[in-house]
Amino acid sequence: MDISQSKRKPYVRQVKKSWWLRNSFYTGYMLREGTCIFVGAYAVILLCGLLRLSQGAAAFAGWLTALHSPLAILFHLLALAACLFHAKTLFSLAPKAIRIFKGEELLPEKPIIMAQYIGLAVVSVIVLLIAILA
Fold it and tell me: What does the alpha-carbon distance between residue 10 and residue 13 come to, in Å, rounded to a whole number?
């Protein structure tokens, strides 16, 4: 028998659009997932810069000039904040996702999280040095 011909009425639970605001865990989760909008938009901006670079020096100079506008600078600051928030939450989740044992004992979370922050700082300094020296 086809379900559309059934006399029974299925139960449809009402879900409000703000369901995730009632629980701090879900709010943090949704904020973390929302950071992908800024990361994706930043990737598109970088791809546009690559396209302009392939079109010649004048096109690339125009793209660089556009990045100096106050709106572009504001967007970059928001994207930086979103990326840092995303990294913070990802770093705090890593010890729960990957269980590292030292002998029979589980390695504490703090050294794992700190190792990630140190790695982020080292890579950031290397990229900064490459950008300055280039």
Answer: 10
Q: Which helix (H) or strand (E) is 76 found in, with range?
A: helix 70-97
Burial code (b: 16+ CB inside 10 Å, e: under 16) for 101-117 equals eeeeeeeeeeebbeebe
Residue 55 CB neighbours (<10 A): 12
Report yes or no: 39 and 82 within 8 Å, Cβ to Cβ: yes
What is the full DSSP assignment across 22-66?
SSHHHHHHHHHHHHHHHHHHHHHHHHHHHHHHHT-HHHHHHHHHH
11, with CB counted inside 10 A (0-12, 13-18, 19+), is exposed
| Residue among 112, 48, 49, 116 at smallest CA distance from 86 | 116
- Rounded alpha-carbon distances, angstroms, from residue 75 to 7, 78, 131: 54, 5, 21
User: What are the pLDDT digits (tens) for 54-74?
Assistant: 999 999 999 999 999 999 999
Average pLDDT, the chain: 90
Tokens of 21: 């605001």
